[in-house]
Amino acid sequence: MNTGRNAVSSKMEKTRILLRDPELARHVPETYPLTSVRLKQMLDRTGMVYVKPDTGSLGIGVMKVEKQGSLYRYQRGLVTRSFRTFEGMNRSIQRYTSLRPYLVQRGIHVLTRKGRPFDFRVMIQKNPSGKWEATGIAGRVAHPGKAVTNGSQGGTIYGLEELIKTKPGAERAKRSMEKLAWLTAVQFGRAYPAMKELGLDVAVDRNGIPWILEVNTRPDPCPFTKLADQSSIRKIVSFGKAYGRQYCLKCTKAKKPPAKGRDAPAKGR
């Protein structure tokens, strides 16, 4: 392993790093290289999974796959297709997954806002003293009609307190996500000592349990530019500058919350 690397592209490799820590492992959904057998086994057992490219970003290529009774369906972008047999659905999915490695991940029934799923981007960075420090949490509400929350897919960015309304609940969520981020940074720092920043995609399920859906080793801080409180993006940029990272902060696809608390339909990418 090249410990001088500061970025890791394979989601499966990053998952394996997380699983080395028993506490983190309890917050990682089952994730495997995609095969037809594995896909059917997980659908039969859990009813919902996500199929995603092993390498890639911005939510591109991610599919939500479900089994409901004897029917199967998958959603890719704004398009949902239904099938009477697993074999028929699998052949259709393979049109997208046959050209490069994909993963299958157990689906989490996440919290929603007005029927739209949301999760959080948690940023953690090396501060100027060389210590890991959580520098921001941004909520990401999915574009209407989409299963992914990415701002690059038209998601809307909210502050943590806007999505978890009670103060005690928001404080608990903040503490638990920051703890997961710190444990993750320690694990990645052991594997890759040159690592200086991570962005965790964390979902909270209906029981309040946080789940690490993905770890980004070259995280895009764009979501934080959409928050009313700009203190996080200022700190992110400042820490990044200290270790030589510059960010593009021209963020046109993620949405700010609509005025007067109303969720207006967002346009596509």
TrEMBL record:
InterPro entries in the cross-refs: YheC/D
Could you tell me which Pfam families the record lists for this protein? Answer: ATPgrasp_YheCD
SUPFAM superfamilies attached here? Glutathione synthetase ATP-binding domain-like
What's the protein name? YheC/YheD family protein
Species: Paenibacillus gansuensis
At the highest ranks, the source species' classification is:
Bacteria, Bacillati, Bacillota, Bacilli, Bacillales
